[in-house]
Structures are given as C-alpha cells and as structure tokens.
Amino acid sequence: MMINLTFIREMARRFHEDEIPRLSAELAYFFLLSLFPFLIFLFTLLAYLPLPHEDVLSLVRQYAPEEAIHLIEANIHKIMDYQNGKLLSLSIIGAIWSASNGMNAIVRAFNRAYDVEENRPFFIARGVSILLTFGMIFVIIVALLLPVFGKTIGLFLFSEFGFSHTFLTIWNAFRWAVSFVILFIVFTALYYFAPNKRLCYADVVRGALFATIGWIITSLAFSYYVGNFANYTAMYGSLGGMIILMVWFYLSGMIIILGGEMNAIFDCERKGRKRER
Predict the structure, then answer these.
(1) What total of structural domains would you count in the chain?
(2) Those residues with Cβ within 8 angstroms of residue 46's Cβ, 6 or more apart along the chain or in another chain
(3) Is residue 4 included in any domain, yes or no?
(4) 17, 28, 178, 189 - which has most CB atoms within 10 Å?
C-alpha cells in the first residue's frame, strides 16, 4: 500500500513540476494542426484502395465524440470534392511536417520526464521525429485496414465453410482486439524511441499498457459525457465541434505524457535514485 501511495504522490508532484497540463495543451494544438492534412492524405490514398471512406470513419466513431466526428466529416467531404492530382503529395508533406512537430513536442516531454537534455543535433532529433511520424502513420493505416478487411474475411469464411454465427461473433471480437494490440505497439515504440535515453523493452511496457487502456477508457468516457450531458454547441455555437475536438486531443495528450512519466518513475525506482528539483 505504501508503494502505491508513494507512486501516487510522485506522480502528483511530477504533474505539477513538469507542467503536464501545459504540455498537454501544446500537444492538442499540434494534433489539431496535423489532423486534417493527415486525413486528406489518408482519404486520398484510400481512393486507390478497395476501401470505402465510410468504413474508416465508422472506426473513428468508436472513440471520438459525435460532434467532433461531424466536424471532421464535413471538412473532409468538402476537401475531397475539390481533390486533384497534387492533393496527395501536398497533403502528405503537410501531414508529416505538422505531425513531426507534435512528435517533437512528445520527445521534449519525455526528455523532461527522464531529466535528460536533448543533446542530439537538430537534424538528428528532427529526423527521429519524422521517422516516428512515418511509423505512426503506417501503423495507424494498418490499424484502420485490419478491422475493415477482417470483417470481409470473416464473412467469407462464414459463407464458404458454413461456420456458425458463434464463429462470426468470436471473429468480430478478435479483429477488434487487433486494434488494441496495434495501439499498444504504437505506444511501446513511442516510449522506447522518443526519449534521448537508452531504454529496454521492459522499461516502457507498463507505461504503454497504461496509455493504451487509459486512452480507450478516456475517449469512450468523454464521448459518452459529451453525448449525454455536455452541450458545447449551446455554449460555443458553431465552434462547439472544434472545442470538443480540442478537449479530446488535450485529454489524449495528457494520457500519453502520463504514460511517459510513469515509465520515468519506474526507471528511478529501479536505479534506486530520487528525483530532485
């Protein structure tokens, strides 16, 4: 019990000392800045794949608040109506640069959690952020494609081999579990590569598991709260959807940073040292 209380006190101290609310707001800004370039790139790319846009949006609806989804859909449909041959190249450049700024902010937050300086040259540090961004984009696309194609594969097996409806239920549960695993892999890679510190896999697993579960629960809870209790539209008018999106990004950024702080606390405990500030 004492260990748990000690951990909670240390996390509360770091929450204040490392200015986690401010860093979360910074991440929310960069997330918002990179969202639409990334979605333009994604939906332009999907035009070359046998995958309906609606199937991808249905996956996002699981976690995002409804009014935020309306805002995203409205802007995406407007942009896609005017797409041209240059849209893919321009959108990927915008998405990568904007998202790498957000990734760079995450790197700074993790370095602060571990009390290490960013002594890598600018081009190396920015290169790491861009490589992590590429990795995140690839994994996100895979995470989006697997459940959708998994549904098609499940229906094919169901009809081809005459499996029972129980098989279809189990298959659907399995394909959604794949998204959880991929999300866990994303956070694990983020916590492993982002800090300017040599770490091993075991050093980041607990923070990655916390971030995965915490992000899913927080997103679902916030979506339920917005849908049933809060009325941002009445307060902010036409900006309601944007405010909801920013709050969702803010909470997501906070979960990511808290996972990094958790790993840093365990790192201090393992090495038998205390943080002094």
Answers:
(1) 1
(2) 53, 56
(3) no
(4) 28
